[in-house]
TrEMBL record:
UniProt key word Repressor: no
Protein name: TRI47 protein
Pfam families recorded: SPRY (PF00622)
GO MF annotation list: zinc ion binding
Domain B30.2/SPRY intervals: 9-226
Alphabetically ordered keywords of this record: Metal-binding, Zinc, Zinc-finger
Keyword Zinc applies: yes
InterPro entries: B30.2/SPRY (IPR001870), B30.2/SPRY_sf (IPR043136), Butyrophylin_SPRY (IPR003879), ConA-like_dom_sf (IPR013320), E3_ubiq-ligase_TRIM/RNF (IPR051051), SPRY_dom (IPR003877)
Recorded name of the encoding gene: Trim47
Gene3D superfamilies xref list: 2.60.120.920
Length: 233
């Protein structure tokens, strides 16, 4: 039961069987918010971010992270389905979502993505992927993918991470309440079952944690003819 609970049940998640084209129908265009970027994160336009050694003299901002090398997307998510992709260029990178009202001044141990009940993420730590929520972790036995797809479903209260290669999608981990008894044997799923659904009562933002020096990511790419979820509302 423990082994089974650490991986999504693809038979109950039809999206796992779809090609990339299926998810592009829900493409969400993300721009990084410079007012949230920690001083050790250098932005390249609105799509690229890299952790650096020398602090950048950003102006004061009440939404800026000050203890964690994190940056948020500019756009809010509060209903419907959203899909975006991130290129992992170098280093240790975490990709996830966070509640809009999360305090960016929180201490490092609590402020990092997935170490609190107000955020969750998929982390690449240089050796393997790990899903995080509420301070609990779930190692994932999958090879490295340069492109990570993120699919957020408000109606299902689910967040799914995919490895993307050649238009094929490999389901890495789905975070969703499970009605079965699996969570009783798995602390990570038990935490999901108890508190993950409450995250969807919040407005959420895409969030990124650049954990190692020289960690580097790029938002996208997505097809230019994709229609943003925002434009359909």
């Amino acid at each position: 039961a423990l082994a089974e609970s650490r991986f999504p049940d693809k038979s109950s998640n039809p999206a796992c069987l779809e090609s990339r084209d299926y998810f592009l129908k829900f493409a969400f265009i993300i721009d990084l918010d410079s007012d949230t970027a920690d001083k050790f994160i250098q932005l390249f336009g609105t799509k690229g971010a890299k952790r650096v050694l020398c602090p950048i003299p950003y102006p004061e901002s009440p939404t800026r992270f000050i203890n964690c090398e994190q940056v948020l997307g500019l756009n809010l998510m509060n209903r419907g389905n959203y899909y975006w992709e991130v290129e992992l260029i170098d280093g240790w990178v975490s990709i996830g979502v966070i509640a809009e009202d999360f305090d960016p001044r929180e201490a490092y141990n609590y402020g990092r993505l997935g170490r609190n009940d107000r955020s969750c993420c998929l982390q690449w730590n240089g050796q393997n992927y790990v899903a995080w929520f509420g301070g609990f972790e779930c190692p994932i036995q999958q090879p490295f993918f340069h492109t990570i797809g993120v699919f957020l479903e408000y109606s299902e209260k689910a967040l799914t991470f995919y490895g993307v290669k050649d238009s094929k999608m490999t389901c890495l981990q789905q975070l969703k309440v499970s009605p079965s008894a699996k969570g009783k044997f798995d602390p990570f799923q038990n935490k999901i079952n108890r508190q993950f659904a409450s995250l969807f009562s919040c407005k959420l933002k895409p969030a990124f944690f650049l954990e190692s020096v020289d960690a580097h990511l790029q938002i996208g790419p997505l097809k230019k003819d994709c229609v943003s979820v925002l434009k359909r509302r």
